[in-house]
Automatic annotation (TrEMBL):
The keyword Signal applies. InterPro entries: Adhesion/Biosynth-related, FAS1_dom_sf, FAS1_domain. It comes from Blastomonas natatoria. Residues 1-23 form the signal peptide. This is Putative surface protein with fasciclin (FAS1) repeats. GO terms for cellular component: extracellular space. Keywords: Signal. Residues 50-194 form the FAS1 domain. SMART domains: FAS1.
Length: 198
């Protein structure tokens, strides 16, 4: 019995050795380093912080109308700038609330200055995460004013655990999706187009 077991082990060893060698015929067996798999997984999970704000908007299907508006207003370069910024980005449903005719009118070339003012009213200098925004609101007693790139202010408050932004006319938009990170800032998706007084 012991001789038979020894012979079997020897035969198995020869078979494994033959499989491990490569004589040029067929494909060699490729060994995968588990460490290389871990690196690939980490790379796949890296945030899109290498994208600029304009690219974050362009790649989000819920912001396709905003992307059209940015192009019509020729604001792409401003959103690609190296200066840190926070953008409150109205989603497609927010633009739908304006109505088809009003939106079409806003996108006309002769209304480019007005459109640029509206879009700039959604941009805050400096990079603010949702947590930082909430902290600032809390530290100031529940409401703060944010000066926009357009020059006028918007009001930020918290209601029913949602960050709400109010424009000059009292229209309110809540943050629907927060902290879309970009290399030059932060994008928060909101459900309302905010409009300045001028």
């Amino acid at each position: 019995m012991r001789l038979t077991a020894t012979a079997s082990v020897f035969a198995l060893s020869l078979m494994l050795a033959a499989c491990g060698s490569h004589d040029g015929g067929g494909d060699p067996v490729k060994r995968i380093d588990p460490a290389s798999l871990e690196v690939k997984d980490q790379e796949a999970q890296e945030p899109d912080a290498i994208l600029r704000v304009d690219e974050v908007v362009l790649r989000n299907p819920d912001l396709s109308t905003l992307a059209r508006a940015i192009k019509a207003a020729e604001l792409g370069a401003a959103l690609a700038a190296d200066k840190p910024m926070t953008v409150f980005a109205p989603d497609n449903s927010a633009f739908d609330k304006l109505g088809v005719d009003a939106l079409a009118d806003l996108l006309l070339p002769e209304n480019k200055a007005r459109l640029a003012a509206v879009l700039s009213y959604h941009i805050i200098p400096g990079r603010l995460t949702a947590a930082e925004l909430r902290k600032q609101i809390g530290d100031k007693g529940g409401s703060i004013e944010l000066t926009t790139l357009q020059g006028e202010k918007i009001n930020a408050s918290i209601e029913l655990d949602q960050v709400r932004l109010s424009d000059a006319g009292g229209d309110v938009g809540s943050i629907q999706q927060a902290d879309l990170a970009a290399s030059n800032g932060m994008v928060h998706v909101i459900g309302q187009v905010l409009e300045p007084q001028q």
